[in-house]
Amino acid sequence: xxxxxxxxxxxxxxxxxxxxxxxxxxxxxxxxxxxxxxxxxxxxxxxxxxxxxxxxxxxxxxxxxxxxxxxxxxxxxxxxxxxxxxx
Length: 87
Hints:
By secondary structure, this protein is α+β, with helices and mostly antiparallel strands. It has a domain at 21-68. It contains three helices and three strands, in the order E-E-E-H-H-H.
């Protein structure tokens, strides 16, 4: 999807504007911090800027899912699929 800035994307199927959700915006912000090398992971008693910098992409994604609240959604979806017997 082509990005148009300001949290909007162009939907290719019907050429309409589609607004990003708050969770998608938070996830994008976290990944931007990771790419810039300024994303700190974990909780440090001396403050968040003293926490170690995240080095792996997987850890950055996990932090992003946690912050945006999408991790809970994904986990509940997996649990319901397990219950139904799907893979």
